[in-house]
Amino acid sequence: MSDHSETAVLADEPVPPPIEANEIAAEELEEGSSLWRDAWHRLKRNRLAVSSLFIFIFIALFCVVGPWLSPYDSQTQDLFLGAVGPSADHWFGTDTLGRDLMVRVMEGGRISLLVGLVATLVALLIGVMYGATAGYLGGKVDSAMMRFVDLLYALPFTIFVILLMVAFGRSLWLIFVAIGCIEWLTTARIVRSGVISLKKQEFVEAANSLGFSHMRIIVRHLIPNVLGPVIVVATLTVPAVMLLEAFLSFLGLGIQPPNASWGVLINEGQQNMEIFPWMLIFPAFFFALTLFCLNFLGDGLRDALDPKSAKD
Amino acid sequence: MFRFVTVRLLQGLLVLLAIYAVTFFLVAATPGSPFSTERAIRPEILAQIEAFYGYDKPVGERFVTSVSNALRGEFGPSAVYANRSVTDIIAESFPVSLKLGSLALGLALALGIPVGIIAAVRQNSWLDYVPMSVSMAGICLPTFVMGPLLALIFGLIFELLPVAGWFGPEYVILPALTLGLYYAAYFARLTRGGMLEMLNQDWVRTARAKGVSESTIVWKHCLKGGLIPAITFLGPALAGIISGSFVVETIFQIPGLGQWFVKGALNRDDFLILGLTVLFAALIVVMNLLVDIVQVALNPRLKYE
Q1: Which domains does chain A have, with CATH numbers?
Q2: Which residue of A242, A250, A265, A295 is the best one to mutate when testing the B interface, meaning the one whose CB has the most B CBs within 10 A?
Q3: Is the pTM of this model over 0.90?
Q4: CB within 8 Å of chain A, chain B residues 166-205
Q5: Could you give the domains of chain B?
Q6: Do A251 and B247 touch (CB under 8 A)?
Q7: Of A12, A86, A206, A215, which one is least surrounded by beta carbons within 10 A?
Q8: Rounded to 5 degrees, what are φ and ψ at B85?
Q9: What is the per-residue pLDDT for B204?
Q10: B41-77 residue pLDDT tens
């Protein structure tokens, strides 16, 4: 990290225009619009992506706020009631222990979304730093670092995650780290190629001649310029992470009872689907819908942030 | 080409060794032992059991023995299932998983690639929109949702197909669909993207201007390059099908390798875990090698990089 004195002295120095100059064409600049505003306009025109965004926000609110509004508690059992289908009292029905399924779906969603967000952040952090370092340093270091990524791509990671979960207990933190540690590869590749194309540009040269440290150039000048593609990857990483967590939970290796994620609920539902199909249908529906929205949103963002790819 | 293959083979062997080492030490670092049971065992008997399996020696020595055994294709006895060696278990269950996996991969390719080509050629028509929306839905329905749903629909509601077991050809259909449809959707999207990129090249416009027929453009000029993204995805697809088999074999109660792996990990059956991990890793490494070779064959420019 750059030391504080340097930051303080140079705080008023003109920082190169962070995003505009590099990625969009000149005629768009004349309208005084930034890449982000442009992207937002393009995204708004993509009806599929916008509705995905709204549905996703709705699901997130449903999961986060819902449990407070519901008269039921996700842990209270009613063994006399047992599993009953959807009714006026229990909109999604109840599970075999008489627990209200709607609250369980909401709280399961909280955990699934939390894993999705935190593990994605871990993955982004690793991927962005790794990719930016490789791209910036270039040469032999770069090829060694990327060769390592290629090797990791070839590994059967789910197997290792399963072993890790068995070996070191099944805590939420381990899930964050384990999943984050395997989903950073794509981010690293994308950031690296972005940094390589940027590092020969004048503003980097300027920063260099002003005597900024490499770390500062990477963090302050290069990384902000590759954020566009990184956001796209992040939107697509969240569903991948949620999928992996649900996969682990489905096998009984992820979230442990009495907590539940959507994967746990789907597993319980699958075991009871012949008699109590609603136990499978509701969590599966919410899980699939969330993945659907995030994937469409990611596609839409890619088209919006990278107009070249939008043409096809 | 020969040099390329040799280098990649050596790299693959190194990767396998690394995977073996990581797995070995991960398993060795796990608290508990494969021989702990609910019944109390007298210490001298436990010592005898440990001596039989070589667990009385230091970890480093065990690793060396284990690697040299593995190189000879000996993965040792199962630590949990008495009187069965890991090789036995593999020999018994691998054909089942192989059949399931290859059918699923075959289905994914046979369905995904043609759909992707058609969608690209008829871009922005219903032949593009409908399959692409369906495939997006397919990608959002992971195996553990797709499996139960297919079982619910075809097995329980329409009673067309059996939902569990492994006895005849009809028992293969639902599991293979469950595993394959997800990747069919992926291959369709990748093929469409790759073909579109080719079809939008300037030289295609030139070819059209010169009056080359549309089918020649698609089949002769664009197909090779357009398939590259799909082929690149073969390696990850195989890895995904292997881990997907853990789920599918659990759902449909199929006696394949996938469920052995989960059982082995949960029971701390060290030898079984090691043997299966190496087998899966070897499959993936070989697949990646094949993919690399095919890629170079399709796109000779890669050879010089």
Answers
A1: 113-278+297-306 (1.10.3720.10)
A2: A250
A3: no
A4: 193, 196-197, 200
A5: 93-260+284-298 (1.10.3720.10)
A6: yes
A7: A12
A8: -95, 160
A9: 83
A10: 777 777 777 777 777 777 777 777 777 777 777 777 7
